[in-house]
Amino acid sequence: MDGTTADPTPEGVLLTSLTQLMAQWTSLTRQTVVAREAGLTIDAGDIRPIYTLGRVGPIRAGDLAADLRLTRPTMSKQLARLETAGLVTKSPDPDDGRASIVALSPEGEHVFALLVQRGREMVDEAMRGWDAADRSRFAALTSRFVEAAIGTDADQPDAPTSDDPSA
């Protein structure tokens, strides 16, 4: 895709650009490259939960599944793999013994830091040649747009779930 759109309005151009960016930067192929460039040997599919846990901190496994829009059984399998790899820890939820709280382990925090560093490098590479004022203005407008586009959690459709509260 060359970035052109049949809809030359600002909304059409933005939609096309965001769709291209999301498709490329979230693809498993690109995530594999990001992990490799960060010096990591992790499964590309594990980047999202690692990044989310690094961003939000300890969270109920079911809430993490909802945040990532995964079913609880899928999340449970992924967390078991991450726990076996030493990247996350699970502990009982003090408010509900059937549920668990997941958090990054020290090694998981290290992996998260490497992923964030590589992500910042990617953004910096994309903005090469931009002056500081343009970078700041773009960051502020993008944050404003994302906040308005995502809204509150109450605005989001529920993630697929199962009846398993311990996920």
What does this molecule look like?
The chain contains 7 helices and 3 strands; from the N terminus they run H-H-H-E-H-H-E-E-H-H. It has helices at 10-25, 28-37, 47-56, 61-68, 72-84, 106-126, 132-150; strands spanning 59-60, 88-93, 96-104. Strands 1-3-2 form a 3-stranded antiparallel β-sheet. The longest helix is centred in the C-terminal third of the chain and has 21 residues, at 106-126. The termini are far apart.
Layout of helices and strands:
Layout lengths: L9 H16 L2 H10 L9 H10 L2 E2 H8 L3 H13 L3 E6 L2 E9 L1 H21 L5 H19 L17
Antiparallel strand pairs: 1-3, 2-3
Number of strands: 3
N- to C-terminal distance? 40 Å
Query: Order of strands across the biggest sheet?
Result: 1-3-2
Strand content: 5-15%
How many DSSP H or I helices?
Answer: 7
How are helices and strands ordered from N to C? HHHEHHEEHH
Largest sheet: 3 strands, antiparallel
Give the % helix.
55-70%
Decide which structural class fits the backbone.
mainly alpha
Low-confidence stretches: 159-167
Shape by Cα distribution: globular
- The Cα radius of gyration reads 18 Å
Summarize the structure.
The chain is mainly alpha-helical and 167 residues long. Helices cover 58% and strands 10% of the residues. The chain has 7 helices and 3 strands.
Provide key terms for this protein.
167 residues; mainly alpha
